[in-house]
Amino acid sequence: MNFKKVLLISTAVAFSFASPLKSCEKYYKLKENDDIFQVILNNKISFQKFKYLNGNKNLHEYKSGDDVCVAGKAKYQNIIKLNANEIFKISKPTKKQNEIGNKYIKSTLNSNQIKKLNNNIELIKDTIDNTLDSKEKSPFSLEKCKRKCEYINKTISSLNKDPNEIF
Per residue in 99-108, is it b (16+ CB within 10 Å) or e — as a string? Predict the structure, then answer.
């Protein structure tokens, strides 16, 4: 046998014994009015695992008719990062909305209060981003998700309850 045939056969054998990093056990076809977050929660799968099994696609890119993996095995080699903009879809305000908002804020708050408000908005955004950016190598569980949401809630509540904070 020549060298090329030996190489081809050994490569084919090696690939036949290799195990995939991810394997889907259950697919779900998205319907017209499906909310991707509700689909994830109904199937008791973490956001990170869902993204991993579905090629790390942004959660807002799914549309009706898409087949998504909602159950499967994943060997966690890479950590999937989520950010606040992906969980909370916030559309960009129009120019008119910005003008109205800025006019209202300026008529209600002084410059120090506006600075404080902007700092608190950044704190909340950073808290959500950092909490959802799991650096743990272990699989994500609903209990961990609950603790993370409680931490986000605690941060926002503390700003809301403090009379010295603008929120």
Answer: eeeeeeeeee
